[in-house]
């Protein structure tokens, strides 16, 4: 891990560090919430290691804690994580193939893909992806464990604005791509779809629906 970290350029290293700090605080809130809802501490920690997808984990625990069926919670979590299919298609060279690709796919999430796509070469993207993914794999369940141990002493991350770190970072990473008109049209259409459907659909579904706007970013035949 140390040798991998050294190969990441300083700006990307700072970005990954900021993301890991934010993930740690969010994990602490997640762990405290799960324990307060009556789950044993090992359960959210295990989910953090095996699933490694905060949105679907929060949704799963929320549905079960509210008395819903675990199977319904599982389906809802899988539905939200369906966006990872698109992520995999966006970074095939970073993931690779075979068993190595399967192992790397476990690190697939919003942050790792955005960091990888922001790099100037495939090799830089692969290194940044692995470094960011390894960091999140440590700090997400680690923050969950710490939050569960601290319990009610953990504050709401929204009070400190930590919940705004993720969209701000992702927006900053995609800004260079918005110089292309086709990408701007797709982003605008996706944003409008998400905003219009957010009051009507369960959490996570507006994002999936907005992905349909990606068709607008496909270059015309014969273009670069």
Automatic annotation (TrEMBL):
Transmembrane annotation, as ranges: 58-80, 127-153, 159-178, 190-218
Subcellular localization(s) per the UniProt record: Cell membrane
Domain of life: Bacteria
Membrane topology annotation: Multi-pass membrane protein
Keywords: Cell membrane, Membrane, Transmembrane, Transmembrane helix, Transport
Protein name (Swiss-Prot/TrEMBL): AzlC family ABC transporter permease
Any single Pfam family the record assigns to this protein: AzlC
Major location (coarse): membrane
UniProt record similarity statement: Belongs to the AzlC family.
């Amino acid at each position: 891990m140390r040798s991998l970290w050294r190969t990441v350029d300083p700006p990307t290293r700072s970005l990954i560090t900021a993301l890991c700090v934010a993930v740690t605080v969010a994990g602490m809130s997640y762990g405290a919430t799960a324990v307060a809802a009556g789950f044993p501490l090992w359960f959210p920690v295990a989910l953090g290691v095996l699933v490694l997808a905060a949105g679907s984990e929060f949704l799963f625990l929320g549905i079960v804690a509210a008395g819903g069926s675990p199977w319904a919670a599982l389906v809802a979590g899988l539905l939200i994580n369906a966006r990872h299919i698109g992520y995999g298609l966006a970074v095939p060279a970073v993931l690779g193939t075979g068993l190595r690709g399967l192992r790397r796919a476990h690190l697939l999430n919003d942050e790792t893909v955005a960091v990888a796509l922001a790099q100037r070469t495939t090799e830089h993207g692969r290194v940044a992806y692995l470094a960011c993914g390894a960091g999140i794999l440590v700090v997400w369940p680690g923050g969950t464990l710490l939050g569960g141990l601290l319990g009610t002493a953990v504050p709401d991350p929204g009070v400190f604005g930590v919940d705004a770190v993720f969209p701000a970072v992702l927006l900053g990473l995609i800004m260079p791509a918005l110089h292309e008109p086709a990408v701007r049209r797709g982003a605008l259409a996706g944003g409008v779809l998400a905003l219009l459907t957010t009051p009507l659909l369960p959490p996570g579904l507006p994002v999936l629906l907005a992905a349909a706007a990606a068709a607008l970013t496909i270059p015309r035949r014969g273009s670069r």
